[in-house]
Amino acid sequence: MALKTVITLTDDLDGSPADETVKFALDGISYEIDLHKSNAEKLRNALKPFREAARRAPAPGSKRGKSSRASSGDRQRSAKIRAWAKQHGLPVSERGRISTHLAKAYEANDPSLVTGAKTSGKS
């Protein structure tokens, strides 16, 4: 005796036979919906202006899964460290990564912790 399993997709909007399962995500939540090709086209057309204006996000779990962009809190901290370094005559770039030595010196409020730095004597 043979057993045959048939899977039939039904359009989740109107109950007609579906042609495909469409996957999408919004606000960090992934969705799947079975749609007839006309409804799938409507969904894609509705999202088109947003999709064209958006940037692609890295796939979850990829090495790039964590954003390389600094959060606003990181940017504020970097700005404070840069201002502190300038106040103490320490070399610091206007952009880019803050050195570990400079960050540790800032946390300790001790400019002498920056290797080879000349300080202005301000505290």
Topology:
Blueprint (H helix, E strand, L loop, with lengths): L19 E7 L2 E7 L1 H17 L18 H16 L12 H9 L15
Antiparallel strand pairs: 1-2
Keywords: DNA-binding
InterPro entries: E3-bd_dom_sf, Lsr2-like_dimerization, Lsr2_dim_dom, Lsr2_DNA-bd
Protein name: Lsr2 protein
Features:
34% helix, Wheat Germ Agglutinin (Isolectin 2), domain 1, 2 domains, 123 residues, 2 strands, single chain, 3 helices, two-stranded antiparallel ribbon, DNA binding, Lsr2-like_dimerization, alpha+beta
Walk me through what this model shows.
The chain is α+β, with helices and mostly antiparallel strands and 123 residues long. The protein has 2 domains: 9-57, Wheat Germ Agglutinin (Isolectin 2), domain 1, CATH 3.30.60; 72-113. The protein is 34% helix and 11% strand. The chain is built from 3 helices and 2 strands. The protein has helices at residues 37-53, 72-87, 100-108; strands spanning 20-26, 29-35. A two-stranded antiparallel ribbon has the order 1-2. Residues 74-108 form the Lsr2 DNA-binding domain. Residues 47-123 are annotated as: Disordered. This is Lsr2 protein. Keywords: DNA-binding. GO terms for molecular function: acyltransferase activity; DNA binding.
